[in-house]
Design a protein that fits this description.
With about 325 residues, the chain is an all-alpha fold. The chain contains 16 helices and two strands. Keywords: Chloroplast, Isoprene biosynthesis, Magnesium, Metal-binding, Plastid, Transferase.
């Protein structure tokens, strides 16, 4: 099976530069902010979002070039994503992320809030300097989408009546919006046609939804070691995702566990068992596969190239993340 890193071979050089640049984002003006940003970016992560930006940049360029605006957009995408994680971790009271302590655990909640704010502000500054108004508009909206997603999620904590449409919409705001907008932005910076820009927006949207659904499945099936955070964290926080929503009809006992907010020590383990038994994981995986197929469909209009092959393989790779 291919690994995500082997799929990045057309953009290895650019990803190496991106990694170096991310570590200098906070500059040296304030030691605490610098330390918080360094802690975040050294925790790693798969860098799937900037990789998509760089691959789309090559896929929509006749000579497979990547311009400076696209390189900067790749960095902006990862900075915005990281800023959202810092704030998510505070809201969800996570102690670890990617196997290392979260920012608010290493420093304090105040510093974490400020570090997240700083990263959002820094991304806006970088964005303004791309000097392409259409791209600025597309990416700026993402930051409001993040807040919208968090608010929507907060309003339906421990609410088993949430519809699948509402779950998909929330997932769009929280994850797919950034990937969709940044894929479109990368194409826009090549002066691609409106049709190509729209196809790549939809590609990013479906890719992002598949990614989020698989993340939600891994929260149920993964171990603390593989996730870098405790399994069942979504349930503990009252975030009812597709695997549990699909299992509710088969496993009515889940409703009682949700009603009492998994307050007993054994409730999370029991809920994980019932979700697996109720077929929720299989149905959620089918939903992710549908999104993957929709994403692949959007790529068929691009001319064949190594970057497009990488985009296809990366899309398939999402489904194979269940290990």
């Amino acid at each position: 099976m291919a690994t995500s890193s082997s799929l990045f071979y057309p953009i290895e050089k650019e990803l190496y530069s991106l990694e170096r640049n991310l570590k200098t984002v906070a500059g040296t003006r304030h030691p605490i902010l610098y330390a918080a940003a360094k802690h975040l970016f050294e925790a790693g992560g798969k860098r799937v979002r900037p990789a998509l930006v760089l691959l789309v940049a090559k896929a929509t360029s006749e000579k497979e070039n990547i311009n400076n605006g696209q390189k900067r957009l790749a960095e902006i995408t990862e900075i915005i994503h990281t800023a959202s994680l810092v704030h998510d971790d505070i809201i969800d009271e996570c102690t670890t992320r990617r196997g290392v302590k979260t920012v608010h655990n290493v420093f304090s909640t105040k510093i974490a809030v400020l570090a997240g704010d700083f990263l959002f502000a820094q991304s806006s500054w970088y964005l303004a300097n791309i000097e392409n108004l259409a791209v600025v508009k597309a990416i700026s909206k993402v930051i409001t989408d993040f807040a919208e997603g968090e608010i929507r999620q907060g309003l339906v904590h421990f609410d088993p009546s949430i519809s699948m449409d509402a779950y998909i919409e929330k997932s769009f705001y929280k994850t797919a919006s950034l990937i969709a907008a940044s894929c479109r932005g990368a194409a826009m910076l090549n002066g691609s046609s409106t049709q190509v820009n729209n196809d790549l927006y939809l590609y990013g949207k479906h890719m992002g939804l598949a990614f989020q659904i698989m993340d939600d499945i891994l929260d149920i099936t993964g171990s603390t070691k593989s996730l870098g955070k405790p399994a069942g964290a979504d349930l503990t926080n009252g975030n009812l995702t597709s695997p549990i929503l699909f299992s509710l009809a088969q496993e009515t006992d889940l409703n009682y566990l949700i009603e009492r907010e998994f307050c007993n020590n054994t409730d999370i383990a029991l809920a994980l068992f019932l979700i697996k038994r109720g077929g929720g994981i299989t149905k959620a995986k089918d939903l992710a596969k549908e999104q993957v197929q929709a994403a692949l469909y959007c790529l068929q209009f691009l001319p064949k190239s190594a970057p497009v092959s990488s985009l296809r393989e990366l899309t398939h790779f999402i489904i194979t993340r269940l290990s």
